[in-house]
């Protein structure tokens, strides 16, 4: 039951209500008995339509009754004249309309209407679209009506520009109409994709939408709808699959990517050469998944200390290939790293628009330093425009957000973590080193982008705020020998994946000793400090 | 839950569920052709409990769910439908069972979900809507599968859930002061379990069943890393 207030009633009132309910129940049960018995007899007639119609008019959500009506209508279709059929379908539409007035969110009444229109010979789609307009005036957020509108549009096929214009009108009526923003996002991708540039939206429209949304959020900053649309626009950039790091040792060969890829992709696009010889093998996901961002390459090529010309080719598209060349980092240990970059890449006019909007956002933030949405949006703009240049300001803002929007402090902490990692990684990739020690001013709370560190042998994650939820993602540390998790917020080590560790340091966490001793028994080759 | 799967006609169930799958991977609810991601989740969940997922085309079922993904990373009831926390649970649950959590936009979706929390601590199901106790389940289970349950404030949410309990009947309602019912009582209790309340048996976020049942059936729904 939704939205039914519990009210205290007197005994007398209660008695009267109970009696009323009993009466209703009696009529209902009588009708249902008759309907079921008629169905058992196979009586698909007009009387049955009347009986079910009466019950549905009071209780539109009885699926069974709509099903019975469909059986009858299908049966009558074989018997009646065209004229009679039109009348039958029209009266069915009237019944659904009546039922939808009783319950505008009745799944089965909406479905019955769709079914009739799909199966009748002469659907009037124009009229249906007008009905949607009327209903959306009564409740602009009823997702059933919006779904029905999409159903009608898919048959009526008006120019999509008309529908796009409709969302503009609805939004100008009320910017808080999230359903309209949603529909608009679908239209935008359909109408104005950037086919040549490979971006989701054409530059001029991308820019236009950014302007429209900023207008909306300044009209009513406390309404959240437009902020979600804006966040989507900020993220609507081209994404390309890249190699990240490749590691070759006698124990295993791993290949990390910036996103998840599957085996058919790998087989088609990845080739490994050692001593200029193509090495055949098989890809195995580290997370035991169909799509993964870190893959083990199983091959029979003997790995010794004298390998040369190790390279991996990645075919990105018909015209673009990237190649990683490996270097020897220590005896029998070869690593090839890519140039990495987390910066979003916008078209010039869009970037210009973002920069202009940033100026007004900053002014607004000065006026209202504790307005959550202003601070959050400014922060995302800074990150999108130039994350590296604005790093300090971004972290400062996120710290402010943890205070002014404390319900979502966990989210902001994870953002600090992720963006600090992104700042750290490009530098880290320039050093020829197999150690990974976190060196940022904030304690990290999660382990994003861990596949980028898959080549590291010594991993120091000590003195952070990591919880046991993070442990399963350590599966990415496929070459790690020494793992330091001391002084974190671990409460259990059950989620720790199987790695070829030599040393595990977990001092300074509140752990169950019995659990650790058990772990030690099962992993006697690992030196454990706890 | 009662360990009595032997009591049902497994072949019959599998045959019916599989017959509801359509060419595009979607599922009908019955012969009359209503399509909804709720039906996909019911189908996938039913077959996985019976260890018979191979009876359907899982890849196509996943592709259909992904065709329902929206600009905010959420999901609706069919392709083109607006995101709604209840349907997000169904779609994320399907991907969890089919072990395709990688296909989600984890950060975008989890942000949208944590923004469902209102100052009262309660959660709504769509932007600019009222809080409702059942979203404590739809939102929190999804966030748990996304490994980001710490993005909402557990303390105020727990207070909201407890305020929805009717002190006379013990049941829970959608909002404080409303009439309680079994639907909201289940989701109130299951929500408290996800928040770490140890007085309640651990509930599995994908199946909304006791964890011990899931363990006994040796099911391993995926959690995002």
Automatic annotation (TrEMBL), chain A:
Q: GO terms for CC?
A: Rab-protein geranylgeranyltransferase complex
Question: Which Gene Ontology MF annotations are present?
Answer: Rab geranylgeranyltransferase activity
Q: Coiled-coil ranges per the record?
A: none
Q: What is its EC number?
A: 2.5.1.60
**PROSITE patterns attached here?**
LRR, PFTA
Recorded hits in SUPFAM superfamilies, A to Z, give: Protein prenylyltransferase, RNI-like
Carries keyword Repeat? yes
Q: Which GO terms describe its biological process?
A: prenylation
Alphabetically list the UniProt keywords.
Prenyltransferase, Repeat, Transferase
Its catalytic activity?
geranylgeranyl diphosphate + L-cysteinyl-[protein] = S-geranylgeranyl-L-cysteinyl-[protein] + diphosphate
Enzyme group, top EC level? transferase
Stretch list, region Disordered: 1-20
Q: Name one Pfam family in it.
A: PPTA
- Compositionally biased intervals (Basic and acidic residues): 8-20
Q: Which family does it belong to?
A: Belongs to the protein prenyltransferase subunit alpha family.
Name the job this protein performs.
Catalyzes the transfer of a geranyl-geranyl moiety from geranyl-geranyl pyrophosphate to cysteines occuring in specific C-terminal amino acid sequences.
Q: What is this protein called?
A: Geranylgeranyl transferase type-2 subunit alpha
Q: Which organism is it from?
A: Leptidea sinapis
TrEMBL record, chain B:
Query: Which Pfam families does this chain map to?
Result: Prenyltrans
* UniProt entry tagged with the keyword Lyase: no
Instruction: List its EC numbers.
Output: 2.5.1.60
Task: Fetch the InterPro entries from UniProt.
Answer: PGGT1B-like, Prenyltrans, Ptb1, Terpenoid_cyclase/PrenylTrfase
Q: Which GO terms describe its cellular component?
A: Rab-protein geranylgeranyltransferase complex
Cofactor(s) this protein cannot do without: Zn(2+)
Q: Which UniProt keywords apply?
A: Metal-binding, Prenyltransferase, Repeat, Transferase, Zinc
This entry's comment on the bound cofactor is: Binds 1 zinc ion per subunit.
Q: Which domain of life is it from?
A: Eukaryota
- Report whether Zinc shows up as a keyword of the record: yes
Q: Which residues form the signal peptide?
A: none
Q: Which residues form the Prenyltransferase alpha-alpha toroid domain?
A: 3-209
Q: Which molecular function terms from Gene Ontology are attached? A: metal ion binding; Rab geranylgeranyltransferase activity
Q: Which reaction does it catalyse?
A: geranylgeranyl diphosphate + L-cysteinyl-[protein] = S-geranylgeranyl-L-cysteinyl-[protein] + diphosphate
Q: Which family would the database say this protein is a member of?
A: Belongs to the protein prenyltransferase subunit beta family.
What is known about what this protein does? Answer: Catalyzes the transfer of a geranylgeranyl moiety from geranylgeranyl diphosphate to both cysteines of proteins with the C-terminal sequence -XXCC, -XCXC and -CCXX.
PANTHER family assigned: GERANYLGERANYL TRANSFERASE TYPE BETA SUBUNIT (PTHR11774), GERANYLGERANYL TRANSFERASE TYPE-2 SUBUNIT BETA (PTHR11774:SF11)
Protein name per Swiss-Prot or TrEMBL = Geranylgeranyl transferase type-2 subunit beta
What high-level taxonomic lineage is stated for the organism?
Answer: Eukaryota, Metazoa, Ecdysozoa, Arthropoda, Hexapoda
């Amino acid at each position: 039951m939704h939205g039914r207030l519990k009210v205290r009633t007197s005994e007398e009132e209660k008695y009267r209500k109970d009696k009323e309910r009993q009466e209703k129940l009696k009529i209902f049960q009588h009708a249902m008995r008759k309907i079921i018995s008629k169905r058992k007899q196979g009586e698909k007639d007009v009387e049955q339509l009347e009986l079910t119609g009466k019950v549905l008019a009071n209780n539109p959500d009885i699926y069974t009754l709509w099903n019975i009506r469909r059986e009858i209508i299908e049966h009558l279709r074989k018997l009646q004249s065209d004229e009679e059929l039109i009348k039958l379908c029209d009266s069915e539409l009237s019944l659904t309309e009546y039922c939808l007035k009783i319950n505008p969110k009745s799944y089965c009444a909406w479905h019955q209407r769709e079914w009739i229109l799909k199966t009748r010979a002469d659907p009037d789609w124009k009229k249906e679209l007008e009905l949607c307009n009327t209903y959306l005036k009564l409740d602009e957020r009823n997702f059933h009506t919006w779904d029905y509108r999409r159903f009608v549009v898919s048959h009526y096929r008006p120019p999509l520009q008309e529908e796009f214009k409709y969302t503009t009108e609805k939004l100008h009526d009320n910017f808080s109409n999230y359903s309209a923003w949603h529909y608009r996002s679908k239209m935008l991708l359909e109408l104005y994709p950037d086919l040549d540039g490979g971006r989701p939206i054409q530059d001029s429209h991308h820019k236009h939408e950014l302007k429209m949304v900023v207008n909306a959020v300044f009209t009513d900053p406390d309404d959240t709808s437009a902020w979600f649309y804006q966040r989507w626009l900020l993220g609507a950039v081209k994404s390309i699959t890249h190699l990240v790091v490749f590691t070759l040792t006698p124990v295993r060969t791993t290949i990390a990517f910036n996103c998840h890829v599957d085996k058919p992709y790998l087989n088609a696009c990845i080739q490994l050469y050692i001593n200029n010889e193509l090495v055949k093998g098989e890809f195995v996901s580290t997370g035991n998944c169909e799509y993964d961002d870190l893959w083990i390459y199983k091959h029979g090529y003997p790995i010794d200390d004298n390998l040369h010309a190790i390279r991996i080719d990645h075919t990105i598209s018909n015209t673009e290939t990237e190649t990683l060349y490996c270097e020897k980092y220590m005896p029998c240990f070869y690593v090839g790293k890519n140039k990495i970059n987390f910066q979003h890449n916008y078209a010039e006019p869009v970037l210009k628009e973002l920069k202009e909007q940033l100026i007004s956002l900053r002014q607004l933030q000065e006026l209202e330093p504790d307005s959550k949405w202003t601070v959050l949006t400014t922060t995302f703009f800074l990150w999108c425009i130039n994350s590296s240049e604005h790093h300090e300001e971004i972290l400062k803002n996120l710290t402010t957000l943890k205070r002014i929007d404390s319900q979502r402090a966990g989210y902001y902490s994870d953002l600090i973590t992720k963006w600090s990692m992104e700042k750290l990684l490009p530098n880290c990739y320039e050093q020829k080193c197999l150690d990974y020690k976190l060196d940022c001013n904030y304690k990290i709370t999660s382990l994003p982008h861990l596949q980028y560190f898959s080549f590291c042998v010594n991993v120091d994650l000590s003195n952070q705020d990591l919880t046991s939820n993070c442990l399963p993602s350590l599966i990415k540390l496929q070459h790690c020998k020494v793992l330091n998790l001391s002084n974190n917020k671990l409460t259990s080590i059950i989620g720790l994946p199987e790695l070829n560790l030599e040393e595990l340091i977990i001092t300074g966490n509140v752990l169950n000793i019995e659990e650790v001793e058990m772990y030690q028994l099962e992993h006697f080759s690992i030196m454990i400090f706890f | 839950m009662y360990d009595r799967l032997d009591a049902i006609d497994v072949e019959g169930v599998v045959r019916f569920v599989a017959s509801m799958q359509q060419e595009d991977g979607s599922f009908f609810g019955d012969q009359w052709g209503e399509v909804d991601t709720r039906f996909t989740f019911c189908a996938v969940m039913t077959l996985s409990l019976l260890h018979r997922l191979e009876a359907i085309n899982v890849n196509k079922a996943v592709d259909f769910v992904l065709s329902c993904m929206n600009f905010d990373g959420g999901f609706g009831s069919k392709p083109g439908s607006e995101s709604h926390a209840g349907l997000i649970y169904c779609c994320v649950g399907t991907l969890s069972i089919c072990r395709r959590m990688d296909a989600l936009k984890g950060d975008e979706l989890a942000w949208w979900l944590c923004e469902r929390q209102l100052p009262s601590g309660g959660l709504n199901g769509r932007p600019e809507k009222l809080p409702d106790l059942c979203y404590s389940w739809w939102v929190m289970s999804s966030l748990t599968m996304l490994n980001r349950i710490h993005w909402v404030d557990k303390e105020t949410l727990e207070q909201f859930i407890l305020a929805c309990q009717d002190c006379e009947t013990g049941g829970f309602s959608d909002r404080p002061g409303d009439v309680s019912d079994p639907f909201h009582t289940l989701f109130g209790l299951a929500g408290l379990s996800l928040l770490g309340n140890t007085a309640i048996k651990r509930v599995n976020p994908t199946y909304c069943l006791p964890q011990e049942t899931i363990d006994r059936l040796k099911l391993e729904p995926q959690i995002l890393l």
